[in-house]
Write a structure and sequence with these properties.
This protein is of the alpha/beta class. Helices cover about 50% and strands about 15% of the residues. It has helices at about 15-25, 40-60, 70-75, 90-105, 115-135, 150-160, 175-185, 215-225, 240-255, 265-270, 270-275, 285-305, 320-330, 380-400, 405-410, 420-430, and strands spanning about 5-10, 30-40, 65-70, 80-85, 140-145, 165-170, 190-200, 200-210, 260, 335-345, 355-365, 365-370. The protein binds nicotinamide-adenine-dinucleotide, the ligand O=P(O)(O)OC[C@H]1O[C@H](O[C@H]2[C@H](O)[C@@H](O)[C@@H](O)O[C@@H]2CO)[C@H](O)[C@@H](O)[C@@H]1O and manganese (II) ion (MN).
């Protein structure tokens, strides 16, 4: 197999070290000649990059080049693939996205509700600029975007780059949930074949089959209803917040037994219960700063001081493996099935064509070829249409500098609903985001 060149945009991300370990474990599937990190924050990136250098030297000796840079031309020239994982405003702004809605009595969340809207308006601008820059230097590179909120970023990228068929918006939540199903069934996650529909962080598995075509759906439902449904990927298995989140799947399934829910639906189906549990002093951002970020930075410091990785476990995680195999399927035309975001255009026949739906697709060298879903039942159609309208209004508001469309978006959002509350939250978010958002009229 021909070796490829990969740039990781947002090299300083808390996910990058795990991604490097996953690239090492997946090197036979996605053999690389060159890995480059790009970030706007040289200091943050250097911590990860110096540790990655040691890891790669010991475990990827066949790699011809590893480098890290803040220069776009150096980063983006001659690339086959780009993994884009930036966070405009950093975890500090994530914390404000989460705190402000809580202060108004509604859910404060990274990608859902008002927090997701605030983050979306910040991400769109940087993501559009980045894709223009990548295209200037690598016209044909596959761009895998998982920068959040991927639903809103993805819609904006479709609007800005309608003819670009080599941008794929992708999320790891469906595979992380499937990993838990696989562990319930004592099977390998890659043996499971999903049927799935919805929007990003807003979807359902209608079926889970195995590769021989056996239907495993009822078995999974019974195990969730009668047992304990838990996260099992190593990155989240011991995280209390993720444990509570996965456990909530049971209630969703009891209330709405037709389909298996994405864990993010908890925010939309039980907004009052969840809002009551949140506290501005213990946001998820704060937990990540004191948890994943601290853990990753300590591990990097350890590797850098030892200049070896002999005393640490090199283990892939499901997030990394999913992105890597999806990229390999595009680059090498594997035609494997992944749940990804694509423009609807009739895939879900009773939803708008312009919705960015999340569905299973074959990833080929000509792009994703999604399987037809057909009609979905009224309850799910209603929920999705309203969420799609919210996402679309946020993107339109960005392009039109429209205060009114943002107010409409927040009022439509199931985590808010009450218009005066939407207005209060919006006005506070405008204040905190003045360095990032477009000016609103
Ligand atoms: N779609 C998914 O399923 C999924 C899964 C995991 C993470 N994510 C996303 O990945 C991103 C990274 O998450 P994290 O928690 O590691 O955040 P982080 O803040 O630790 O890392 C983000 C990095 O991006 C850099 N950055 C910010 N703006 C940039 C720009 N314009 N150009 C280049 N670099 C820039 C920052 O300096 C930082 O080093 C987030 O958007 C997160 O939501 C998505
Ligand atoms: O609150 P965080 O920062 O811990 O997580 C937010 C992200 O959650 C999902 O990603 C999971 C992923 O599903 C799992 O496999 C593992 O890698 O952990 C991630 C969270 O730490 C979600 O899909 C992302 O979009 C969120 O950004
Ligand atoms: Mn996601």
């Amino acid at each position: 197999m021909q070796r490829k060149n990969l740039v990781i945009v947002g090299g300083g991300s808390t996910y990058t070290l795990g991604m490097i370990m996953s690239l090492i474990e997946e090197k036979e599937h996605f053999p690389l000649k060159k890995i480059t990190f790009y970030d706007i924050n040289a200091t943050r990136q250097e911590i990860i990059a110096k540790a990655a250098k040691v890891l790669l030297k010991e475990h990827y000796p066949e790699l011809e080049s590893f480098s890290y840079t803040t220069d776009k031309a150096t980063a983006f020239s001659d690339m086959d693939a780009a993994f884009v994982q930036i966070r405009t405003g950093g975890l500090a702004m994530r914390e404000l996205d989460e705190q402000i809605p809580i202060q108004h009595g509604v859910i404060g969340q990274e990608t859902c509700g008002a927090g997701g809207m605030a983050y979306g308006l910040r991400s769109i601008k940087d993501m559009i600029e980045l894709v223009h820059d990548i295209r200037q230097y690598s016209r044909d590179a596959w761009i895998l975007n998982y920068t959040n909120p991927a639903a809103i970023v993805g819609l904006a990228l479709k609007r800005e780059f309608p003819e670009d068929k080599r941008i794929l918006n992708i999320c790891d939540m469906p595979i992380a949930i499937m990993k838990s199903y696989a562990d319930l069934l004592e099977k390998d996650v890659w043996e499971l074949v999903p049927e799935y529909f919805g929007l990003n962080h807003f979807g359902w598995f209608s079926k889970i089959l195995d590769k021989q075509g056996h239907d495993l759906t009822d078995d999974i439902k019974n195990k969730i209803i009668n047992g304990d449904f838990l996260p099992t990927d190593k990155e989240i298995a011991h995280d209390e917040s993720w444990i509570q989140t996965f456990r909530k799947a049971r209630q969703m399934l009891v209330d709405f037994p037709e389909f298996l829910p994405n864990t993010y639906l908890q925010y939309y189906l039980y907004p009052d219960d969840l809002a009551k549990k949140e506290s501005p002093d213990n946001t998820r951002a704060r937990q990540v700063i004191n948890g994943r970020e601290k853990r990753v930075h300590e591990l990097c410091d350890h590797i850098i001081s030892q200049q070896t990785t002999h005393d640490i476990n090199i283990e892939a995680d499901i997030h990394g493996v999913y992105m890597i195999r999806a990229a390999a399927s595009l680059v090498f035309n594997w035609k494997e099935t992944f749940v990804v975001m694509v423009e609807n255009n009739g895939i879900i026949s009773n939803l708008p064509d312009d919705a960015l739906v999340e569905v299973p697709a074959l990833l080929t060298s000509h792009g994703p070829k999604a399987f037809s879903v057909g009609e979905i039942p009224t309850f799910y159609k209603g929920l999705i249409e309203s969420q799609h309208a919210y996402e679309k209004l946020v993107v339109e508001a960005y392009y039109e500098n429209s205060y009114n469309k943002l107010l409409q978006a927040l009022t439509l959002n199931r985590t808010i609903v009450h218009a005066p509350k939407a207005k209060g939250i919006l006005d506070d978010l405008i204040d905190t985001n003045k360095d990032y958002w477009p000016e609103l009229n």
